[in-house]
Specification:
The complex is a heterodimer of chains A (about 150) and B (about 110). Chain A has about 150 residues and is of the alpha+beta class. In chain A, strand 2 and strand 3 form a beta hairpin. Helices cover about 30% and strands about 25% of the residues of chain A. Chain B is α/β, with parallel strands linked by helices. In chain B, strands 1-2-3-4-5 form a five-stranded mixed sheet. In chain B, strand 3, helix 2 and strand 4 form a beta-alpha-beta unit. Chain B is globular and about 30 Å long. Classes of the chains: A alpha+beta (about 150), B alpha/beta (about 110). Chains A and B meet through helix 1, helix 2 and helix 3 of A and helix 2 and helix 3 of B.
Chain lengths: ~150, ~110
C-alpha cells in the first residue's frame, strides 16, 4: 500500500499522476482504465489545491494507492476546508456556448471516470477515496466507453 | 508544455505539446491570448502532441471559443485529437461546440 506525500501545488500534479499510474500499470490495468484514473486523480488534486487549500503551497496532499480484489483505490488526504457535496451542481452539458459555465467539470469527471467516489472528513483531514474496477469486475459498469486511451 | 503559433494566410495554427492541466493551462491560455490580441479569430488548435487535458484546459477552450465566435468574427477548430483527448471532450459535452478535423490540412482548409 504505497503512500507518498506531495506539496499542494500544481507542479505536483504530473508527479502524482506518475505515481498513481505507475502502480496501476504494474497491476496490469488497461490503457483505458489508466486514462480514467489519471484524469480523476488530476481533477481531485486540482480541486484540493483550488478549493480546499484555496491556493498553492498551503498544505500537502497525501496519496495512497491500494490494490483491492478486481480493482484499485486511491486515497487522497488533505487538511484544507471540507467540501460540502450538497453545494455541488453538475454541469449542464447541453447549455449553449454563450451560457456555458467553465467550472464544475472536475467532480463530474471524477464521477464519470471512476466507479466510486467517496468523500469523508475525520475532523481535520478530508479523505477522498477513488475506486476503479477492472473491466471484468461486475461493478465496473460506469465508464468503460469513456476513455479510449 | 510547449505552445507554438504560426500565422497563416487565413488562420493561425496553434500547436500544443505535453500535458494541459492546472499547472500549464495558464501558459496555454496566454499563448492563445496573444493570437486573439492580434485580432485574429480563426484558429486551428493542433492536438497531435497533447497527451492529456484536464478540465482546466477545457476551460481555456470554452473561453477561446466564446471570444472567437463573438460578433460572428471567427472560430477555433481542433485537429489531430488522440482518442483519449476526444473522449474527454465528448464527456464534457464539447464535441458539439467545436469542429473537429482529422488533420491540419482539413482544419486549415475549413477557413
Amino acid at each position: 500500500m504505497p503512500t507518498m506525500i506531495f506539496p499542494g501545488r500544481y507542479s505536483s500534479l504530473e508527479k502524482i499522476a506518475e505515481f498513481v499510474t505507475k502502480e496501476a500499470r504494474e497491476s496490469h490495468f488497461s490503457e483505458n482504465n489508466l486514462c480514467c484514473i489519471e484524469t480523476a486523480v488530476d481533477e481531485a488534486c486540482s480541486n484540493i489545491i483550488e478549493h480546499a487549500y484555496r491556493g498553492e503551497n498551503v498544505g500537502n496532499i497525501e496519496c495512497t494507492v491500494d490494490l483491492i480484489p478486481g480493482g484499485i483505490t486511491i486515497a487522497l488526504k488533505d487538511n484544507g476546508r471540507p467540501f460540502n457535496i450538497k453545494n455541488y451542481r453538475p454541469p449542464n452539458l447541453k447549455t449553449p456556448l454563450r451560457n456555458r459555465k467553465t467550472h464544475g467539470l472536475g467532480l463530474y469527471f471524477m464521477n464519470k471516470m471512476m466507479d466510486k467516489v467517496e468523500l469523508s472528513n475525520d475532523g481535520s483531514t478530508n479523505i477522498l477515496l477513488l475506486t476503479k474496477y477492472r473491466e471484468t469486475h461486475p461493478d465496473a459498469n460506469k465508464t468503460q466507453e469513456q476513455c479510449n486511451g | 508544455m510547449e505552445v507554438t503559433t504560426t500565422t497563416l494566410k487565413r488562420c493561425d495554427l496553434v500547436k500544443a505539446k505535453g500535458r494541459i492541466d492546472s499547472e500549464t493551462a495558464t501558459a496555454f491560455s496566454d499563448a492563445i491570448q496573444k493570437v486573439l490580441g492580434q485580432e485574429r479569430f480563426h484558429i486551428v488548435l493542433d492536438f497531435s502532441n497533447v497527451d492529456f487535458i484536464s478540465s482546466a484546459g477545457l476551460r481555456v477552450l470554452i473561453a477561446t471559443q466564446k471570444t472567437c465566435r463573438r460578433f460572428n468574427r471567427g472560430e477555433i477548430v481542433l485537429s489531430n485529437l488522440k482518442p483519449k483527448i476526444l473522449s474527454s471532450l465528448d464527456l464534457a459535452g464539447f464535441t458539439s461546440l467545436f469542429k473537429i478535423y482529422d488533420d491540419n490540412i482539413a482544419a486549415i482548409g475549413s477557413f
